[in-house]
Specification:
With 306 residues, the protein is an alpha+beta fold. The chain is 23% helix and 23% strand. The protein has seven helices and ten strands. A hairpin with a 2-residue loop joins strand 9 (279-283) and strand 10 (286-290). The protein is elongated. The chain binds a DNA duplex (16 and 16 nucleotides) through residues 1-3, 6, 32, 58, 73-78, 106, 131-136, 151, 176, 178-179, 183, 186, 188, 195-197, 242, 244-247, 264, 284-287.
Length: 306
DNA sequence: CACTTGACCTGTCCGC
DNA sequence: TGCGGACAGGTCAAGT
């Protein structure tokens, strides 16, 4: 589900909501969603205060004052929704909310939270980790160990970091020089945070066919792709991400990038640049949307080498 | 080693 | 309306 812009939108939302809350209780029913032992949960999560919420690639990082950290990956259908106690539909307008009463049948983990407001008064809240398909996970681990997990050791740079340049982008893509540009963009060890939506959107922007073999793409085109990728990621963060189906932000609200999407899930519609009908095909094992006029399939396309 | 495919799950949609 | 199959935002392990 969530790619970089969606996870970043949730991070921004949770950063305003969570710091200062103490975790008072945790309930989880699907062991794969949260495999830590009850003893560790009791010792390092219950009673801990939330310090800050960070993000790396598509992983949310919730730092606690117990020297432990919660890592959360939403995978395809994960949601992380904050609700003040007795609050029915989140902080936004009910029409923007995709979900109603919580917990619901997709809720895998419930965190009970409390915050001291004035004197003996406590604000109570809950944080729900919902995940229809059960691919996502929550992990509790020592904060100092976080950079050492396999995923963080191998994941590529953040594409919106100021230090990340078009030259870095090209150098890293060339690590996968014999595969399709779409597979290379989706490879998290090349660049962090790109998924199916923004791969298709940025390739349309750069007029590159997704099946084109990386080593045959000109430097000019790679530079263009770099700009387009940053553009779509930034635009989507500004729009609160893409709600294709399940995605909601920390308050349960949908994102609006899908109404700005140029090709993703727009098969059968006119290309906004040339009017040709957008098609859907399969590249790198994923549903892939493109304009067959703007993104001509070159002889160097992956499936023509068979 | 580089690269591709299948598995992990539930739910929905589409064709017969 | 029922049933089977394909498919859905991601990542691993296992395969070629």
């Amino acid at each position: 589900m969530p790619e970089l812009p969606e996870v970043e939108t949730i991070r921004i939302g949770l950063s305003k909501l969570l710091p200062g809350y103490k975790v008072t209780k945790v309930k989880h029913d699907w062991p794969k969603s949260f495999p830590n032992s009850p003893a560790d949960v009791k010792a390092f999560l219950i009673g801990a205060n939330i310090k800050q919420v960070k993000r790396r690639a598509k992983v949310l990082i919730i730092e606690l004052d117990s020297s432990y950290t919660l890592l959360i990956h939403l995978k395809m259908t994960g949601q992380l929704v904050f609700r003040g106690k007795n609050e029915k539909f989140g902080a936004g307008h009910p029409s923007q909310s995709l979900i109603g009463k919580l917990p619901d049948k997709s809720t895998r983990v419930t965190f009970n939270l409390e915050k001291v407001v004035i004197g003996p008064t406590y604000h109570k809240a809950e944080l729900f980790f919902n995940d229809q398909r059960k691919f996502g996970w929550v992990r509790l681990m020592p904060t100092v160990e976080v950079p050492n997990i396999d995923f963080f050791k191998s994941v590529g740079p953040e594409p919106l970091e100021a230090s990340f340049t078009a030259i870095d982008f090209r150098t890293r893509l060339l690590k996968r020089s014999n595969t399709s540009i779409k597979a290379a963009l989706l490879d998290q060890t090349v660049i962090a945070g790109v998924g199916n939506i923004y791969a298709d959107e940025s390739l349309w922007g750069a007029k590159i066919h997704p099946a084109t073999v990386v080593k045959y793409i000109s430097t000019v085109k790679i530079n263009k792709l770099f700009q387009e990728l940053q553009f779509v990621l930034r635009l989507s963060i500004e729009k609160g991400g893409s709600t294709n189906k399940n995605y909601v932000d920390a308050e349960g609200k949908k994102g609006s990038y899908m109404s700005f999407a140029r090709v993703f899930r727009r098969e059968g519609q006119a290309c906004p640049r040339c009017g040709t009908v957008i098609i859907k095909t399969r590249v790198a094992g994923r549903g892939t949307h493109l304009c067959p006029h703007c993104q001509k399939q070159p002889r160097t396309a992956k499936w023509l080498q068979l």
